[in-house]
Structures are given as C-alpha cells and as structure tokens.
Design goal:
The structure holds 2 protein chains of 2 kinds.
Chain A: H1 2-29, H2 34-41, H3 47-57, H4 63-76, H5 89-93, H6 96-124, H7 129-143, H8 146-161, H9 174-208, H10 211-218, H11 223-260, H12 266-275, H13 279-307
Helix pairs in contact in A: 1-13, 2-3, 6-7, 6-9, 6-11, 7-9, 8-9, 8-11, 9-11, 10-11, 11-12, 11-13, 12-13
Chain B: H1 2-19, E1 30-35, H2 50-56, E2 64-66, E3 78-80, E4 83-88, E5 94-99, H3 113-124, E6 145-150, E7 155-160, H4 167-172, H5 185-190, E8 198-204, E9 208-213, E10 227-232, H6 236-244, H7 258-267, E11 272-286, H8 296-305, H9 308-316, H10 338-341, H11 351-364, E12 373-380, H12 383-396, E13 401-408, H13 410-418, E14 424-430, H14 436-444, H15 458-469, H16 473-489, E15 495-505, E16 509-510, E17 529-530
The chains are: A mainly alpha, B alpha+beta.
C-alpha cells in the first residue's frame, strides 16, 4: 500500500508537470497576446507602443526563459503579476477561490442529495408512474442548457419574489451564502443530479437482481435494509466515480452560472483571463484546477477501498 | 359643458405643475449602477471606451468642461473646471489658463500647473518618458500642440503650431482629464488619484467599482451622493432584471436597445428612459489597396447598394440616424444638412434606382447572379458588430456579391485591419467629442495611428488642416461638409447609421443631464442626488 501511494503521488506530480508545459505552450499558440489586446482595447495598433508593453511584461523573452521564471516562481509561491490588473496574481486568485468553492460544494451537495435517493426510488419502483416521472426529470436535467435554466430561474425569481440574487461582496455568514448561492448551486447541480440519478438507477437495477438481495429478502430483511444497506452500498461504486468526474467537470458549469448570476468566482475570472491572454492568471488557475482534479481522482480511488472491502491496492 | 370640464381639468393640471415645489437637493445615499464589462483599466487617457469614461470621469477634473447643464456639447458652451479663466493671445496660438489654487489631489497633495504640463506632455508624446501612462490612443488630437509652459504654480500655457479653435473643445472632453504627476501609471490604471468629486475606494475586476465622496472637493457642497456603486454585470439580461427589480438605480449608458425598451418599461413602470444618439456610427471598412476593392467602380457599387433604412429598421426599429461622417443635426453641431446628405452616394432616396446602377457596374465588370464576386466580410465577434455585418451580406447579394461572414476575435481585430488582411469589414467608430478636429484627425488623417484603414488622401489632409485652423465657424462648417462629401465619394468608411439608444434610471435619481452628442462626456455625477 505504501509503495502504491508513493507511485500514485509521483504520477500526480508528473501529470501536473505535463499540464504545466501543455498550458504554457497552448496559451502562446493562441493568436494575439496581452500587448495586442491592450493596444486593441485602446483602438491603436502602434508597433512601438506594443513592443514597449511586451518588454515591460517580459513576454518578448524566449519561451523557455518565460517558462523557467514561471515554474521557479511557482515553486517559491510567487505567482507573478496579473497583466491586466497589474496586481499580484495571488491577490487576484485567492479571494475568488472560496466563492467558487462554496458554489461548487453546494452544487455537488445538491446533486448528490437529489440524485442518489431519487435514483434508488426510481429503481425500486421500476416502470411505475413515479419512475417515468423521475426519468423525465432526469432527462430534462441533462438536456436543459445551464445558461437557459439560469435565466429562467432569475425570471422566476423576479416574478415571484420581486428580486434576484445579485452577489454581495460581503456575505455575512452561512445563511447569507445560502441566500446568494443557493439558486445558482441548484442550477449548476441540476445537471449533475440528473446524471447521478440515472446512474444510481441503472446500477441499483443491476444489484437488485443479484442472488444475495433475494437471499436478504427471503431472510425477512426490511425493504429499507435491503435497498439502502445491501443494494445501495454495492451500487455506489460507479456512482462515486461519476461524482468524482462531475466534481471536476463542475468548473465548466460554473462558468455559465457565474456569468448569469453575476458571481465573481474563479470560473468566470478564468474565461475573462483567457480572453485577455492574462498568462499569469490563466496558467496558475489551470494548474490549480489540474491539481484539484488529480486530487479528486486520487480520493475517488481511495474511496473505492472504503466502499468495497474486496478492493485492495497491492504494492 | 364637456369643453368647460376639460378646461377646468387642464387648469388644475397646469396649476398642479406650477405649484409643484422645487425640491432642494438631498445629500447622501448610494447610487447603484450596473456596468456592462470589466473596464480594461481606470486610466481614461489610456483607453478608448465608455466603459472607462462613465465610471472614472467622476474621479477627475479637466481644465474646462462642456457645460454639464447643457444637453448639447458645443464650443460656445464651455465652462471652467480646474481653470478659473482662460485667454488666447493675439495670434490665436497661445492658450493661457489661470488655475485654481484651492485644489488638492485625493492623497492630499496640492494641484499645480506642473500636473497640467506633465499630463499633456505625456498624452501628446512631447515627453514619452513620463511614467504616468504607457499608451496614448488620442495622441493625434494634440498634433498641433508644440509645448506646454508654466508660469508659477497657477498658470499654464498651451503653445500651438497654428490657430486651432477646437483646442478648447478637446480639453473640455471627458477624455481629457488632468492627471496627478506624482502618481505612477500602474496606480492610475488600478486605483487612480484625481481631484474630482469622488475617490476610488475599490476597483475589483469582475465585481465592483466603488467611488466614495471626496470631502475636500473644491466645489463646496458637492457632490451630493456619498457613494457610487458600479456593479460589473457582463450579462445584459441579468443587468436588465437587476434594474427592473430595483437593485440598480440606473442602467449602463445606452444599454437599453429599442427592442428591449418595451420590456423594461412594462416591468418597471416608473422608469425614466431617455433615447439619444451615442455619437458612435456603424461604418464599413473597405480595403482599397487589394482586389477587388482597389477598383473604384466596385467600391461605388458597394456604396450604391446600401439601404440605410433597412439597417435602421432591423437594428433599432428605425431609430438610427442617417448621416455622413459627422453626427447629423439637430443633435450634432457639425453634420451636413439633410438636403445635402441626399446628394451623397449611398444616401439617395431611390434605393431601387441606385441598386440598378450598382448592378450595371457589376455586370460591366463581368459579374452576374451565375458568376458572383466572392468576398469575406470581417467583423469583431461581438453581436453589435455581427448583426449589421449580416445585413450587409444580405444587401450585397443584390449586386452579385456573395459574401461570407468572418468573425474575428477582438484581440486581433485592429492588427488584422492594420495589416490590410481583409476585404470588407464592419466596424463601429465612436467620437469622443462632437468635433471635426478630433474625428477627422483620428480616423482619416494620413499620419494618425487610429486611421486603421490607412486612408491617405493628401487633398483631404489639407482640408482637415484648413478646417482646423478656420476661426469663422460658418466657414468651417462648409469645409467640414466638403470633407464629408469627399469621404463619401471616396467610399472611405461608408456610414450605415449613427446609433441611437436608451438609458434608463429610477425616478428617485435626479440631477443627471445626458448629453446628446457624445456619450463620453457629462459623467462627473457631482450634481446627481437621490430623492429618498
């Protein structure tokens, strides 16, 4: 187990290194750089002014030198300066992480809270009206674009409550967060919940047909015990995998939802930084996301062991 | 009896209006406004967008400004700001300002003539080493400025190469604030120090621009508001919903298009909405240095097929203004009269006739429905650019031109145009001041770096210089109209319409006077107050 862990951690480090090279090179392959954009934004294309900006920002240096400076800084905890705001990149990124983190956490919580129990109910009541209803709900979750759903929720909020949850930069505690992020989290989490619901249902249907379930029933175990204790635990493995993948994919959903609900989180900030070719912001944020995804994958693998005692990672 | 009742009712209404008390301005409160995007920076001199002017003009002062109580910016309606008075010398080449001595920067340091000198030395490029800005998109405005001299702390003189009556208008523009020279450019771009009625408390990208009252403002009793809170909301639907639910007291300037106006008014019945021109025109860029548009006949055919009214009807329910290069009257000061406009190519009233002529030109050149001319119409990949480009493509079909839309990322748009890597482009061109000097020098003068299309006509250059030096405004207008005519005949950025949009606010917001011939001016907010 110890050797396995070391191997996994080394692999994680290698993946992150590969990512850093990939994102660094890809960013520079995109046409236009920050000097182009800054001069374009002012409506000028004077090569002299452009060259001066490029020199000031160091983007006229050889690519290897730029990469070395970035990685060296990253190792020292120095993320550099954002090109657009001219503030330390860490000061730009750090305050936004908890906002998106809370939104993603709430969305995932909502997705699991809704997806798993409804998936179980749908499987247990297979081919009943309730099952059909829940399947339509899950299908709509997969097919409604988050952008459209977000706007619909905002309009509904205006119609019924006469207000919309515009993000307040100083939320005062947990309930303030819930009030501001609750609706957006539901919009983001709805799609994931649909996926989780469908997967839980199919996985449960497979498990419910197993001999040991029949045995449990014949021994007189209660419906609840059979479904949730014996069947669900065994049906959860693929669901946990999907929850892990969805957690990583949530960033994509957050971009749209943060835009519609005007939440100043990391995802919207990343898109904006890409548009502005703000390399220090994009590079560091993508690395952060890569780190989160790699870590989640690792944790999911570890969760398998906890869920299924038969799984052992050998040295 | 009915007539008598009507008279009584009308009298009561009139009396009611007359008896309505004039409320004294109330001090205090926070004004909430939605902002459409992240401004590229807070440095007005370095940027060319209303996204910077509208929030940050309130942080600064100019030497002089267009009278904020007048709806129309005009050279004869300019009032003192940081200057107490001004005078021209006998040769009309030296403009001297006496400065106020009671003005302090937001950090407490005194404002002096050195600040004025260093600002305009940097903007004009007289001294390129100054650290207060790293780019100056309107350098061409100051092409005639030779030197800025000071006489003590409270007098400054602008020395011009030749008489230029518009110079005062240039200094009165929202784009011409005075910067503090003891503050470096990085600070001016992120949290600028000014002398204006409001200080920057916070500029957080993607989130908020928060301005707070400057208690040491030199105009006593101003501003009325305590705080102006600009919330950055890039999604227009969210902005509109925020305004309708009262979370914003005002929309971003010209944010409410005519198709949206009805919905906004239905949802917020007490909203005050004002429509006005933006002094931004939609125009067509034609690459005259490469085939097929190096042929003047093809350019002429393209201009002749344009149906301005169709553009206006589709884009703004018929509200766009028809005009040549300058904003047309009655809103604009310099645009040519309607009857003269009708004689220009592309502005005739009989579109069928001009299209038939255009078809004849194209047929003569060997094009037909079976053998169309294939081109690309490039434009920035933004809806307000793409929409007119699509209409243009449709209209070009009428004269056997089969065009594909080529959406271009904003980051490389001007580079592409400057490299002449396009055939036809759809563009928006704004005017910081409704003034021929700024507009012509910026966009059509051969030496201007903002003359993206590299339009180069020595005759037009001469006329631009001539109108600029003309002190008789009637004679000058005639020269301006001659330039407009030449530009139209040359198909130099044919104008398909002058944009006209709505700005809305809650009735409790008082004291704002929108200026009808430039959206870039009049955003000092010092007279705005909240009636609540």
């Amino acid at each position: 187990m110890g050797a396995y862990l070391v191997r996994r951690l080394l692999l994680m480090a290698l993946t992150l290194f590969g990512m850093s090279v990939l994102i660094f090179v890809m960013l520079r392959l995109v046409p236009g750089d920050i000097a182009d954009i800054l001069t374009n934004a002012s409506g000028i294309s004077d090569p002299k002014e452009k060259a001066k900006i490029a020199h000031d920002l160091g983007i006229d240096q050889p690519i290897l030198v730029q990469y070395g400076k970035w990685i060296g800084g990253l190792a020292r905890g120095d993320l550099g300066f954002a090109y657009v705001s001219e503030q330390p990149a860490i000061d730009e990124i750090l305050p936004r992480i908890p906002i998106s983190g809370k939104l993603a956490g709430m969305a995932l919580f909502f997705a699991v809270l809704l997806g798993v129990p409804l998936g179980v109910i749908s499987a247990v009541r297979q081919n009943t009206k309730l099952d059909y209803f829940l399947r339509v709900i899950s299908l709509s979750g997969l097919s409604l674009p988050a952008f459209w759903l977000g706007l619909l929720v905002l309009m509904g909020s205006v119609h019924w409550f006469g207000t919309i949850p515009i993000y307040n930069s100083d939320p005062h505690g947990f309930w303030d967060d819930v009030a501001m992020l609750g609706l957006p989290a539901i919009v983001v989490g709805f799609r994931s919940s649909a996926l989780i619901m469908r997967l839980t249902r199919s996985s449960m249907l497979e498990v419910l047909r197993q001999d040991y379930i029949r045995t449990a029933r014949s021994k007189g175990a209660s419906m609840f015990a059979v479904n949730f204790k014996h069947a669900l635990r065994n049906a959860l493995l693929p669901v946990v995998t999907v929850i892990g993948i969805e957690a990583a994919f949530l960033v994509g959903g957050l971009i749209v939802t943060e835009t519609v609900f005007n939440i100043p989180g990391v995802a919207r900030f990343l898109v904006e930084a890409i548009l502005w070719r703000d390399y220090p912001i994009v590079q560091n944020l993508v690395m952060l996301i890569a780190f989160v995804v790699v870590t989640i994958n690792f944790l999911v693998d570890m969760a398998y062991m906890a869920l299924d005692p038969r799984i052992k990672y050998s040295d | 009896m009915r007539k008598r009742m009507a008279f009584v009712a009308a009298s009561l209404v009139a009396l009611g209006v007359a008896a309505t008390p004039v409320f004294a301005q109330k001090a205090g409160g926070t004004l909430h406004i939605s902002h459409r995007e992240n401004p590229p920076s807070a440095s007005i001199h370095e940027e060319s967008t209303i996204s910077v002017n509208q929030p940050f003009m309130a942080v600064f002062n100019n030497l002089v400004v267009f009278d904020p109580n007048e709806k129309k910016n005009s050279p004869d309606k300019i009032v003192p700001d940081l200057a107490e008075s001004w005078s021209w010398d006998a040769t009309n080449t030296k403009l001297t300002f006496k400065l106020r001595t009671d003005v302090k920067w937001h950090d407490g340091k005194p404002f002096t003539s050195k600040d004025v000198k260093c600002t305009f030395d940097a903007v004009s490029g007289i001294d390129e080493k100054l650290d207060i800005m790293r780019k100056s998109p309107r350098r061409i405005w100051y092409v005639n400025l030779k030197e800025v001299t000071t006489n003590g702390d409270s007098e400054v003189t602008f020395v011009l190469g030749r008489p230029q009556p518009s110079f005062l208008s240039i200094l009165a523009a929202g784009y011409s604030p005075v910067y503090s020279c003891h503050v470096d450019g990085r600070v001016m771009r992120s949290k600028p120090i000014g002398t204006g009625p409001f200080k920057v408390a916070e500029f957080k990208r993607n989130e908020v621009i928060k301005l707070v009252k400057n208690p040491d403002y030199f105009k006593k009793g101003r501003p009325y508001l305590d705080v102006i809170d600009w919330k950055i909301v890039p999604n227009r639907s969210t902005r509109m919903l925020g305004f309708q639910t009262g979370q914003f007291d005002m929309t971003f300037d010209s944010d409410v298009s005519f198709p949206m106006l009805k919905d906004v008014m239905d949802q917020k019945k007490d909203a005050v909405c004002e429509a006005r021109p933006t002094n931004v025109r939609s125009d067509i860029l034609i690459n005259r240095d490469a085939p097929p548009f190096d042929n003047p006949d093809v350019r002429r055919a393209l201009v002749d097929t344009i149906d301005f009214r169709a553009f206006s009807q589709i884009l703004s329910q018929g509200h766009h203004l028809e005009g040549a290069a300058m904003l047309p009257p009655p809103y604009g000061v310099w645009g040519m009269p309607k009857e003269m406009l009708a004689t220009l190519p592309g502005h005739g009233t009989d579109i069928a006739k001009s299209r038939a002529e255009a078809q004849a030109i194209m047929k003569k050149l060997g094009y037909s429905a079976d053998k169309p001319l294939k081109i690309k119409v490039a434009t920035r990949n933004i809806a307000i650019y793409r929409d007119p480009a699509v209409i243009l493509i449709d209209q070009l079909k009428q004269i056997y031109i089969e065009a594909d839309l080529e959406p271009i990322d904003s980051s490389v748009w001007y580079n592409k145009i400057a490299k002449k890597d396009y055939q036809v482009g759809m563009n928006l061109t704004g005017g910081g001041v409704d003034d021929p000097d700024t507009f012509f020098y910026e966009n059509f003068y051969s030496k201007s770096e903002r003359n993206y299309t590299s339009y180069n006509n020595p005759e037009v250059d001469k006329l631009i210089d001539a109108q600029s030096a003309e002190t008789d405004s009637e004679k000058r207008k005639k020269l301006v109209w001659e330039i407009e005519k030449k530009l139209a005949e040359d198909a130099a950025r044919p104008v398909i319409g002058h944009n006209f949009d709505n700005t809305c606010w809650d009735p409790k917001m008082k004291g704002l006077k929108l200026q009808v011939n430039s959206i870039y001016n009049g955003w000092r907010f010092e007279d705005v107050w909240l009636d609540k």
